[in-house]
Amino acid sequence: EAAALDASGVFVNCGGHYAGTCAECIRSQSGGGCEGECVLLQGECQAAKVAQAPGVPTADTSEEAAEVQADLDHKAGRHSSSPSTLDIAGFVISSCIAAFFADLYKRQVVSKLPRDKILIAGDAADELRTLRYREAGLFDCFREPSTCAYACLCGPTLASKNYSSGKVLRFWPSCVILHALAPFYCCNAVVRTVLSSRLKRNMGLQGSPLKDFFLNLCCLPCEVGRESLEVDEALEVEIRCFNKVTSVAVPEPPSSRPADSGYFPGACFLPRTCGP
Q1: Residues 6+ apart with CB under 8 A from 22
Q2: Which of 202, 208, 253, 255 is deepest in the core (most CB within 10 A)?
Q3: Which letter does DSSP use for residue 50 in this model?
């Protein structure tokens, strides 16, 4: 038996003796031989685990099962480290949908917004303007269903409209940057803090970089919707679903005197027929 074990290098402990396999344990010892590394199940002696005798290399009796399990673990690890075809397809489809909506939003909304309502901070016309507190609250966008929907479903596109109208960054560069950074929350919050600080200065609003970073990190849709309400108010427009722009500017009252008419009460424009 020892010679057979040396040749194969595989053994099991039958409980007081060793055998090549658990099925040989009962044959090698009369009665009670299926113990130790083996168990008796339904009249058959089967392996419970594999042991190693001193000086003999270990061989797994369930080698095939171990190879299958190792292959499954390897596949699981590879899947977690590299994207699958389904992940790539989902990313491509979502990117195409976002690009299509951004193009539609730019043509139907951004291109119709006035460009002369918000000044760039530092211009000569902006020297006497003082910064004011923000009147819009963080959750005021919930009062406007359209703004809330845009902020929650397509926040990068709405933020790009704010930056474009506020003369901070053009629409398409802003849209590409914000969409690309959307999965990276910290980087997105840093970039948004810088751009939003410029937007607030252009609109004459006070802001705190630390507070802006915290809001962009923890409550991004609400902050984007809040900025959109402030920009729309400065532009004197209302934007409703679906991509409808309405001007809310109050028309100036007409002048009581005709402009450039040269008319004065009591004046006579016919000198040859007026009076003696």
Answers
A1: 12, 14, 34, 37, 38, 45, 46, 47, 48
A2: 202
A3: -
**Helices (H), ranges, the chain:** 2-8, 25-28, 63-81, 85-108, 145-153, 155-165, 171-181, 185-203, 209-218, 220-235
**Phi, psi at 237, each rounded to 5°:** -135, 165
Which of 235, 239, 191 minimizes the C-alpha distance to 213? 191
* pLDDT exceeds cutoff 70 at 27: no
Rounded Cα distance, 226 and 219, in Å: 11
> Identity (one letter) of the amino acid at 59?
A
For 115-170, write each residue's pLDDT tens digit: 888 878 765 455 556 788 999 999 999 999 999 999 999 999 999 999 999 999 99
Model confidence, pTM: 0.61
* pLDDT value at 5 more than 60: no
d(CA 227, CA 206): 13
Residue in the structure block whose two tokens are 């966008």: 141
| Calpha distance 166→170 (Å, rounded) | 9
Q: Which residues touch 108 (CB under 8 Å, ≥6 apart)? A: 243, 245
Write the CB contacts of 60 (distance below 8 Å, at least 6 apart in sequence).
Answer: 50, 66
The residue behind tokens 């002048």 is: 255
Per-residue model confidence as pLDDT tens digits over 219-262? 999 999 999 999 999 999 999 988 999 988 777 666 555 555 55
The Cα–Cα gap between 216 and 189 comes to 5
| Residue of 214, 236, 232 whose CA lies nearest to 223 | 214
